[in-house]
Structure formats: C-alpha cells, structure tokens
Amino acid sequence: MRNCIKILFFLLVPFGLNAQVDSLRKLLVHSPDGEMQHNLCRDIYNFYEEQNRDSALLYAEKKIAIARKCGKRVPEAYSRISKAYQLTGLGRLGEAYRSLLDAFAIIDDPKLPQKEDWQLSVAPFKGDVRKLLRSYAHHISGILMLRTENIQQQIFHFSEAGRIGTEINYAPRQMLAYMNLGLVYLSINKLDSVLYYENLSQQIAYQSGFKKFLGIVKFTIGDVYKAKGDDATALAYYHQGVQWGKEENNLNAWNRAYMRLFRHYFAAGNGDSALYYAVNNLRLIHEMGQISGTETNLGVAYEYLSKGYQLKHQFDSAFKYQGMALTIKDSLNRIRIRSLSDLQNLSFGEQLRLQNLEKERSMYQNKVRTYALLSGIVVFVLVAVILYRNNRQKHKTNKVLESTLSNLRSTQSQLVQSEKMASLGELTAGIAHEIQNPLNFVNNFSEVNTELLTEMKDELNKGNIDDAKAIADNVIGNEQKINYHGKRADAIVKGMLQHSRQSNGVKELTDINALTDEYLRLAYHGLRAKDKSFNAAMKTDFDKSVGSINIISQDIGRVVLNLITNAFYAVADKKKKGIDGYEPTITVSTKKNDGKIIITVKDNGMGIPQHVKEKIFQPFFTTKPTGEGTGLGLSMSYDIITKGHGGELTVTTQEEEYAEFTIVLPI
Amino acid sequence: MKVLVVDDEQDMQTLFLQRFRKEIRDGKVDFVFAISGEQALEYMKENDHEAILILSDINMPGMSGLELLEKIKQKYVAPPPVVMMITAYGDAENYNTAIKLGADDFLTKPVDFALLKEKLKL
User: Fold this and answer.
1) A68, A33 Cβ separation under 8 angstroms
2) Which residue has the higher pLDDT, A632 or B40?
3) Which pLDDT band, with edges at 50, 70 and 90, does A635 fall under?
4) Crossing angle, helix A73-89 and helix A53-69, to 10 degrees?
5) pLDDT, tens digit, for every residue of A280-311?
6) What's the confidence (pLDDT) of residue A510?
7) DSSP secondary-structure letter at A625?
8) To the nearest 5 percent, what fractions of chain B are helix, strand and coil?
C-alpha cells in the first residue's frame, strides 16, 4: 500500500503540486492505518511548510494527534517542533514556545525509545532519534529567538542544532543550522562568518540534495556582496535565490529574495522593476499566509508597494498603500508586542517552573545525599564493627601467637642448651674414647714395666748384669712412652675444656685486619720455631673498609690461628712430596660484602678429598699422623664462628690444588 | 701362629712385642705389623693366607678398620682369616657395624692383654 502511495506521488508530481496534495488529502480520508495517516500528513505538511503557514500548522497538529493516538512519542515530539516553527512564522511566539517546551519534555524523557520506525521527515533517519529531535528543537528555538533579537541565544541554539546534526550526520539539520547561523552573523554584520557558514550550508545542500532552503542561502550570500558594495554579484545571488525558491516551492525564500530585489531597484531608482517586485512580494505573502516573519510581512509588503508607486510618481496609490502599511504595521506591532510579552510571560513562568524544578531537584538531591550519607554511615559502622571484630580476633590470635612464641623461645633456648649438652656429651664421649688410646699405652706399658723390673731383679740376682741393663733400657723406653701418652691425654682433656667451656669472653670492638695479621705472624713464627727449614710465601689482601666489629677477639684469633696453622701444614706437607716448581703460598684476605665481614685463608696445598671434607668439622677428626693433632681444631673453630658469633665457616677445595676456608661474620 | 696387627699408633708394635715377649721367645706366636689398612692389604696380597689372625684398630687415617674388615671378608672367602677389631670406640654402633661386616671378635682399648691371650689360647 505504501509503495502504491509512492508510485502515486511520483505520478502526480508532473501534474502540479496542488493536485498532488489534493490526492494525498483524499488518500488520508480513506486511510485506516496510523502510520500511513501520519506519513500522508507529513507529506502534506512538508508541502505547505514553506508555502502556507496556516495549512502547515493544521497538518502539524494532525500529525501530533495521530502520534498521540498511536502512543508514538518520537513523531509527536517531532511534530510539536514543526508546529512551533509554523507558529513562530505566524508570529504566535507564546504558543510556539509552549509547543517547543512540550517537545523538549518528551526529548528529555529517559523512557523515550532510541529508534523510530515511522519516518519523521523528508529523508529517512536510522540513527539516535533523541539526538535528531534535540537538534531540530534547538533549531526552531533559534528561529524563535530570531524574533527576540537575542543574538547570544540565537547563536547558542543554532550552534547546538549544528553540532548535534553533525554528530548524527544528518544533512538537513546541519545545512539549516549553518544557514541560520549565517543569518545571525549577517544581523550583526560579521560578513566573513556569514560567508563561512553560508558556503558550508550550500556545500552540504548540494552534497546531500537537500535544496529546499538553498534560496535563502543564495540571497544571504547576495546580502554579503551587497554590503561589500558588489551589486552585480549580489544581484546574481538574489536571482539565484528567487530561482531556488520557485524550484523548491519555498515561498519564504522566493519572497525574501524578491524583497531584496525590490530594495535594490528602489535604491537604484528603477521604478518599474521596484514596483514589479513589490507587487509580486505582496502576492507571495498573501499566498503564504497573513503574517510571516519580522522580515516578511504584509506591512512591509504594503510599504514597499507604496514606495514603488512613489518612485513611479503615482502618489494616490502610494498614499493608499502607505496608510494600509501603517495600519497593518501598527496592528502587527501590537500583535508582535503581545506575542513577545506572551513569550516573556511564558518564559518567566517557565523560569519559575524551572526554578521550582531546580528546587525540587536540589531537595531530591539533598534527600539522596542524606540517604547516601545515612547508608554511608551504616556501611561505615558495619565496616567498623567488622574491623573491630577482626581486630579483637587478631588480638586474641596475637596473644596466642605471643604465648606460642615465648614457648618457642624457651623451647629454643632449652634446645640450644640441650644441644650444648649434647655437644658436650658427644664431646665427652669422644674424649672418653679418644683418651683410651693414650691410656691403653700408659696402663699396658706400666704393667709391662712392672713385669720387666721383676725380670731385671731376677737377672741381677743371677748376676747377669748385661741382661739386667738391657731390660733397664726397655723400662726407660717404656717410661718415656708412658710419659708421652700421659701428656697426650692431658692435651686431649685441655682441648675438650677449651671446646666446651662457657664462653665468658666479652665481645669488644676489634680491628679485623690487625687481628688477622697478628695471628698470621704468630702462626708463621710458631711453625718456624718447630721447623727452621720451613718457608712459605704469605700473601695478604686486606680490605681497609672492613674496619672494626664486635667480636670475642681471643676466640676469633684462635680460629684464624688454627686455619692458618692448618694452611701452613698443608703446604709443608705438599712441599715434602718434592713437586717440581712448587711454591708454598698462603693467602689471607679480608673483605666487606653485603653487610658482612669475610675472612678467607687459602693454601695451595694438596686440597681436601670429598670424603674427608664431609667430616672436617667433626670433633676428633684429623688427617694428621696420630699424635700430631687432636682433631678438635676445626670443630672448635666451627663452634666459635657459628654458635659464638652467628657466622659461617665453610670450605671450598680442589684436590691437589688448594683449600680455602671462609669465615663470614655478621656486623 | 701368625698375627697381623693393624694400628696407626707406632707404639702399639712395641707394646705387642713386649706383652707377648715370652710367647714370641717360645715361638708360639709371630707378629707382623701394619700402620694402615692399605699397608695391611698390601701385606696380605704379598703373603697369601699367611696370617690367620688379624687384629685391627678402627680409627685410622685413610682406610678405616671397618673398611679393611669389609675388604678382607669379601676378598678372602675360603677360609677367611679371623679378624678381631680393637678400638677405643666401644660404642654399640661401632660394635654392630663390625659384627655385621663379619668381625669375629670385638675388643676395646685399653687392651686387656690377659683377655686377649685367653682368646688367642696362648
């Protein structure tokens, strides 16, 4: 059915516009469907829009009624804006304003649908209808403001219309907004701005094919050239304005172009031309409706006619029209003033309403704020309660943890104590066993000696002096052995005491480099005293930044001495093997690294085999020939460094190459 | 009877010779000494099955007495020599290890030579 109408529409075009509207009217009478009725009214409205304001207003109202009946809010709002436009054109500004407010109320309704399947205007639109409506409403607001001569409001509304039109990329809205912005700038004589906006508008019109208002753009550009004194160009544009007005059935544009042509010819003193345009102007105004905009109205038409007759020296006609012009202008002025005050009252009322709204809103906001605050407080209290509970729980847990910790601490100290005891016990067991070796000799040799002395006595009794002497030698040898092993037992016990004694040494600030150097010398001289042939290269690498730290210097000194003695022993041992080109070397170095003091003692001796390395810090473990070492040196050193000073004693080695002992002491 | 005494302490040799001087004089026993496990093995290799009794210390530098015991018991299967361990460490762990490895007897230091003589039936 709709297609049929379209076909009809196109068929009708050549037969004349009025015939086409008549047939649309007929269709409307028979149309049962809301959308179709709306579309027919829309087309009829569009036909009358710039041709006859009263008819256009009628169809705008019909469209509103249809939309309301169908519950179509978007078409309703759109038609309300159209209605406002027609009312503005008719000078009924108060009503126009009310219609606009109704439209804005719908636009601002959050429940307004975003899409609309009814086609609202000449061009279909698929985008955000709310934005389309807003752009249109701002545009008509701008036109309404043209009547109030409030330039700022005009620029604001047309700019908004243009901005939103660009946002939704809808050419008619853009084109019209820029066109009217140009007109606003013309009224304040900003010619460059006028040209900019009118050219933009013209460009969009040509590109989009929306040329209905191109006539207005043309004569406005003509006005710019007129103002610049370029009459020829201005005239050409005026004629284009007339041409586009005729072509697009835009009587408003056509008529306003005529007015300009009249003014031009009147000023030029061309009576015939002036009168021609004045007469046609009046005809067009009659056709459009009684009252039009401020620029085009019956009063102006009569005035121009009067002026035209004056120029033609037909003074009676001139006088007659002048009188009519005055009467009309007077009434028009009264209407205009009433209309403006209407508008003012309305806008005052609207302002009051807006103020009330604002009040309500602020009250509502206050309420909301109060509620937000209250709920905030509730949440806060809740959080506080939860935090308090958590805190209490934490507190409890902390108490439990604290007692656990103190339990742990006492357990730990007990453990340390028991480990000490264990270590002492281990040591004691070790000592007890280790001491059996010398005791074995002491006991057995003394027993043997008793036997030998008895035998010697027998020999002496027999007079065998030589035999007796030989036995005496044996006894002496055994006595020496007894003495030696007795001393050995003594050394073992002393070592044990050293190992296990409660460290009553006090930690004092000690220069690590000086200490290390001192014990290096001590070790060297000690060894040289035993073996004069011994010699070894001693290298030192002391880091001056090491400085002094708190240690039990005697203990650390013993460790250093022990490590250095071991190192000398290792190199001496390797030297004995007679390896060619071997140079016994001992390197002692200190270093400060990562908040720790590091002392290393390195020898280039035979190194330590893996299976030995594992046992090296165990008490009584020694690789020295029996009797030469107690096997307590390194285990004691280990205890001093780890237990006594909280440090580390480690060894790295390469068999037959080197052994390096490292003491790490915390500062 | 040939007895191989293995002990890292040199004085052990003197002690054995003096303690058994009468038995040696009477030709009842003959002692051979080694101061390390390695040396003991060397001797045994050279003088196959000559020693019928081995008295070994446990704590020695290098090869320990227990290692020596293990090697002897693995190598000399038929008839294996009698091995007695003599050590200052008479604790249970040492004892059990020695017995497990096949030690025939276990003596502690100081050596009770009267007891040893009894065991050797001398």
Assistant:
1) no
2) B40
3) confident
4) 160
5) 888 888 887 655 455 667 778 888 888 888 88
6) 86
7) P
8) 40, 20, 40
Report the largest interatomic distance among the alpha carbons of chain A, rounded to a whole angstrom: 198
Place of tokens 């068929």: A11
Place of tokens 């009067």: A306
Six-digit token pair at A49?
Answer: 């829009």
In a 13 Å sphere around the CA of A371, the CA atoms on its Cβ side amount to 5
Find the helix packing angle between B11-19 and A465-500, rounded to 10°: 140
Interface residue A439 vs chain B (CB under 8 A): yes
Cβ(A129)–Cβ(A113) under 8 Å?
yes
Assigned token pair, A589? 């170095």
Angle formed by the axes of helices A129-146 and A151-167, to 10°?
A: 160
Q: Which residues of B touch A437 (CB under 8 A)?
A: 9, 88, 109
Cα R_g (chain A), whole angstroms:
60
The residue length of chain B stands at 122
> Which pLDDT band, with edges at 50, 70 and 90, does A239 fall under?
very high
Sign of the C-alpha dihedral computed for residues A256, A261, A265 and A268 taken in this order: positive
Q: Which residue of A has its CA nearest to B89?
A: A433
pLDDT in tens, A325-374: 888 777 777 776 776 766 666 665 666 666 676 777 778 888 888 888 88
What is the distance between the alpha carbons of residues A636 and A619, in angstroms, rounded to a whole number?
A: 8
The pTM for the full model equals 0.44
Q: Which of A193, A194, A138 is nearest to A161 (CA)?
A: A138
What does the mean pLDDT of chain B come to?
Answer: 86
Backbone phi, then psi, for B54, in 5-degree steps? Answer: -120, 125
Nearest to A166 by CA among A115, A211, A107, A208: A208
pLDDT tens digit string along A405-414?
A: 777 766 655 6
pLDDT tens digit sequence for B17-57: 999 999 999 999 999 999 989 999 888 888 876 667 888 88
pLDDT digits (tens, 9 = 90+) for A560-576: 888 988 898 889 888 88
Q: Does B119 touch chain A (CB under 8 A)?
A: no
Whether A208 contacts A172, CB under 8 Å: yes
Interface test mutation site (partner A, options B15, B85, B117, max chain A beta carbons within 10 A): B15
d(CA A53, CA A293): 11
A471: nearest CA partner in chain B? B18
User: pLDDT at position A502, please?
Assistant: 47
What residues have CB less than 8 Å from A354, skipping those under 6 apart? none
- Residue A58 has phi, psi (to 5 degrees) of -60, -50
Mutation to test the B interface, candidates A427, A428, A433, most B Cβ within 10 Å: A433
Question: Quick one: tokens of A299?
Answer: 């009063």
Across the interface, whether the CB atoms of A444 and B89 are under 8 A apart is answered no
Structure-token pair, residue A591: 């270093």
pLDDT one-digit tens code per residue, A89-144: 888 888 888 898 889 889 888 888 888 888 888 777 888 889 999 999 999 988 88
Instruction: Single out the residue of A150, A140, A151, A145 nearest to residue A176, CA to CA.
Output: A140
Name the residue among A44, A47, A13 with its Cα closest to residue A27: A44
